Structure formats: structure tokens, C-alpha cells
């Protein structure tokens, strides 16, 4: 392990510090939704074998975390205003999925098996197209205490 020695800032021996790779601000939102995981062309036994209990109708209290990266604006100290990010998350995702059935009620999820993976990818695309190029850094979708999906750039 390296020895930690307090160094003087102008000491020539002091190693150059690298700037942080990224500053990412995160915002969390929750929604409740129903879904069922099954392929219509498969029979019940195969759906049960692949999707387990999720082959039946059920719901989750989801948690969506969105990270936006950038350089804090000098005037505000913010990468993004969290009020704006929260509004964007609601408009792009939450308002369409909260208290809905994900297989039936959401136009932009038609034909998608609403696994946590597929939901997180769909959310990523909807958020990305509403943010400046390269700003979206992370989408995490928590489906249950034990299951979550994370997408990073
Ligand atoms: Ni489920």
C-alpha cells in the first residue's frame, strides 16, 4: 500500500492529479406498474419454464435512477438542474408507465417483453433523445429488492 504523506501543493515531487473522469448527478423517481412476461407463441408450460412466476400477471414498485454527466456550470454549480431532470423523467417515462399495464397500456412498449432489461433500454432511448448529446450517463431500474438493471455509456 502506498504511504500517504501530506505534500505541499507546489512541491515539484508532488504527482500531478488527474481531473475526475466525470461528474454525474443522479435523480430518482418511482412508479408502480403491472406486467406479465410471456411469449404468446409459446404454450403455458414453456412460458412457466422460462419466465417462472413472472409468466403470470403481477406488478412491481419500480425505482428509476437517472444519471446525467457534465461539467458543473460555474454560475450555478450544477451539471443539470434537478427540477429540469425530474420534469424530463416524468415526461419521457414516468407519466406513461405509472399505474399502467406495461404490456398493454404504453404505446412505445408495444411488442416489447417488459423485462427489467428491456424497460431500462426503452427508458434509456427516451431519455437520451431529450438530453444534450452524451449527457445521459446511467440508467438504473430497480424492479424488486433483489433485481435491478444498470445501463451505462
Ligand atoms: Ni415482474
Please give a structural write-up.
By secondary structure, this protein is of the alpha+beta class. It has one domain: Tetrahydropterin Synthase, Chain A, CATH 3.30.479.10. The chain is built from 3 helices and 5 strands. The protein has helices at 44-51, 82-97, 116-128; strands at 23-35, 58-70, 100-101, 136-142, 148-152. A 5-stranded mixed beta sheet has the order 3-1-2-4-5. A hairpin with a 5-residue loop joins β4 and β5 (148-152). The longest helix is centred in the middle third of the chain and has 16 residues, at 82-97. The protein is elongated, with a radius of gyration of 21 Å. Nickel (II) ion is lined by residues 35, 54, 58, 60.
Euclidean distance between termini CA atoms: 31 Å
Structural class: alpha+beta
Apparent shape: elongated
Please compute the radius of gyration using only Cα atoms. Answer: 21 Å
Average pLDDT for all residues: 93
What binds here, in terms of ligands, is:
nickel (II) ion
Mind telling me the CATH class?
Alpha Beta
Fourth CATH level, the homologous superfamily: 6-pyruvoyl tetrahydropterin synthase/QueD
Report the β-strand fraction as a percent range: 25-35%
Q: What's the CATH topology label? A: Tetrahydropterin Synthase, Chain A
Report the uncertain regions.
none
CATH architecture: 2-Layer Sandwich
The number of distinct structural domains comes to 1
Total count of helical runs of at least 4 residues: 3
Biggest sheet overview: 5 strands, mixed
Write the H/E string, N to C: EHEHEHEE
Can you count the beta strands? 5
Helix proportion of residues, in percent?
10-25%
Strand order of the largest sheet: 3-1-2-4-5
